[in-house]
Structures are given as C-alpha cells and as structure tokens.
Design a protein that fits this description.
Blueprint: E1 4-11, E2 14-21, E3 27-31, H1 42-48, E4 52-56, H2 73-87, E5 92-97, H3 99-110, E6 115-121, H4 136-162, H5 171-180, H6 187-190, E7 207-211, H7 222-231, E8 235-239, H8 247-250, H9 252-263
Parallel strand pairs: 3-4, 3-5, 5-6, 6-7, 7-8
Antiparallel strand pairs: 1-2, 2-4
Length: 265
Amino acid sequence: MATLTQSTIHANGIDIHYWRAGERGVPVLCLHGLTDSGRCWETFAADLGGYDLIMPDARGHGLSGRPAHGYRTEDRAADALALLDALGIAQTLVIGHSMGGDQAAMLAATAPGRVRAAILEDPSFRVGENDWPATAADDWTVGLLAEQALGRDGLLERARRDMPHWDARCLDAWAESKLQCSPLAFNWLREPRTPWIDYVGNIAVPTLVITAEPERGAIINGATATALVGLSPLIQITRLTHAGHCVRYEQPVAFVDTVRAFLAI
C-alpha cells in the first residue's frame, strides 16, 4: 500500500482533513464519493505511483468538519479550491468519483486556470430521469445508520459476502469511511444546487469520464454519455466492463491503466 501522511487545515470556514501520498511529481487532487473518505483512494495511490496525490475528506465525511449546512456541489468545489490555495498548489489534475465527480467537474468549470485535466469516475449525472428520488436523502440516511450499527467487523463481513468482486485492499478504508460519515452529508440532495448540465459545458480542459456497465449499477447510461459528449468536444467517455458504479474497486488494474493512458496524452 502507499505510504500516507495526514493533516488538517482550516479553510473556507471549516476544518478540511486530507491524506497525501507521494508529495513529489504532478499534483492530483482526488475527490471521493458520498459516504466514502479521502483514504478510500489509498489503493489507487499505491497502484498509480509517480504523482503527488492529495485526498481530502469532503465536509461531513472522514475527519473533516461537519457544518449544519453547505453541502452543495458549489460548497465542496470551494473547499477544494481553498485546499489548493492553502497547500500552495497553483494547478492540479483532478479526479473525482460519483459525488466527487460532480465536485471535480465544477472545479474544472469554475476555476479553469487551476485544473490541467479532469477524470470523472462514474459521476452522479443523470438525464432522462427525475434526478434522484425525493426520498433519496432520507432513505440513504436510514441505510447509513444501519451500516454504522454493524460496526467495523460487521461491515467487513457484509462487504466480503455481498461484494466479493471488489478489490479486497479497499475494504478497510471503505468500512472506516461509513463509520465516520455524518448523515448531514446527505444534505447534498436536500440543498438547492446547480444542475450539472448547466456547468459541465464550461469545462475547458481535457476531461475523461470512466464509467462501466449500467446493468451492474453504473450511473452513466447511454443517454447521459450522449449528453456529456454533446456539451464539449473535450469530454471523452471510456466504459469498462465487469464493473458498476465503483469502477476502481471492481476493476483496479483496468482503471489505473486507463488513467495512466489519459494522463500521458
């Protein structure tokens, strides 16, 4: 596994805890998905190598602050920019999964001089549907509390039983992240936020969307992929097989190979 360091800074009005791997080479800002944490990029950091990976815990997640309000994509993009400022990083590559994919896309769209290129791992973009159901935040809160009631050992047992196709190296960080996550994180769906289709077209840097099979749970279906490439000629889509929403957990080798090939362009 990668050797990680961790620290906390106060920026954009909250404590932002982050993990770091490498600290040499081109910086890569890694933004995790809903209920995960920065440490959930640990195995990716070990496999990628050669880059300076900065892996923050989003607000309401991990060891970062958990304010009562402020969980929109805009708020998390501002957190990411404030972290870059605090670390003295003028420009970065950015990669985000799911909710973090939205965050990465907005950062690239609103701070173009700060982002060299973006990679979105099955971002939570939807078309042809009524976005997320109105009850999603409440339903997911119930699910998170049930997961937390299992404790670490129970979560690991369930993951090994229900997700045997996942990279086993990621399970410890995944379980830890569920226990650390605040239900406030689901305010992301409760608070008014800018629709992704209104800002993704403003991305002016090379952007790769890595998704997988909708039949296995990937969010980016055919209609959404068509909408994405129609928004900008800089957006390209790669669809990996034998994986669902958590692409890098299910196909770690193919995922890292795809990232490396894109970054070499």
